Amino acid sequence: MDNDTHVIKAGSTAHGQFETDVSVERAGWEWCSIRVLALPAGGQQEVTSGEAELLVLPLTGGCTVEVDGHTHRLQGRDEVWSAITDHLYIPRGQNFTIRSEEGGRFALPASKATRDLPVRYCPASEVVTTLRGAGNCSRQVNNYALGNDLETSHLLVCEVLTPGGNWSSYPPHKHDEHNDVERVLEEIYYYEVRGVNDTPGFALQRIYPSGHPIDVCAEVHSRDVVIMPHGYHGPSVAAPGYDLYYLNVMAGPAEDATWLMTDDPAHTWIRGTWETQQVDPRLPMTPLNN
């Protein structure tokens, strides 16, 4: 099993006000990274984007971001289960400051960049929200830098909300070859699990070979990270009774910043069963944009 290599436990990369800091060096690859900043009420943090482009994406709470001589207010949200959120795109080579009057937690999903693009405020109304799958494969996908109007150099970001007991990232799929139907994309999953009655809950994550050696079958909890350099990934199984959230960060060498993947041919038939099933009535978990 490769769990110890690819599963990064909550708190294991923490330093200062960053509760998570998975750099490209820590992941052992070239493109993707993620930091999660936890600010107390009235707190602030200076950050540099360096060679990376990134989003400031509130998980809980709101903030202001001072960058390139301008101040941007992000309204944020109470929690990932309550709403989608506005967010801010920051290109490479920027120094910026995040401040939060009420306190909160803010994800900074990032990718190495090869182009210089402008800072861009993205209101929640621009987030493309969809329901995917049916039956016990139903889940909600919120696109922040994927399949919408936000132009990035290489960064792709979405979040997935899966009701307890459902299978997500299913059928298993991969994106580790460059061809007409697939792109090479490193991927990070950052998890939150909605606990019940002081019980934190859990989920399961699988990754297995697609011509590259990898074998992960792991129990994951809130604020864990799984890095996926290659291989078929899925399912992400939300344990019954515990809703699952994960933030997807993807990037790779292709200049078209496009998400293209292929299913494991042994399981792609599952998609055909959705035509005769209803979407889980617990969805949407947050209001959808039209």
Automatic annotation (TrEMBL):
The lineage of its organism: Bacteria, Bacillati, Actinomycetota, Actinomycetes, Propionibacteriales. It comes from the Bacteria. One of its GO terms (molecular function) is 5-deoxy-D-glucuronate isomerase activity. GO terms for biological process: inositol catabolic process. It holds the Pfam family KduI. This is 5-deoxy-glucuronate isomerase. InterPro entries: Deoxy-glucuronate_isom_IolB (IPR024203), KduI/IolB_isomerase (IPR021120), RmlC-like_jellyroll (IPR014710), RmlC_Cupin_sf (IPR011051). Keywords: Isomerase. Gene3D superfamilies: Jelly Rolls (2.60.120.10). It comes from Arachnia propionica. Coiled coil: none annotated. Its EC number is 5.3.1.30.
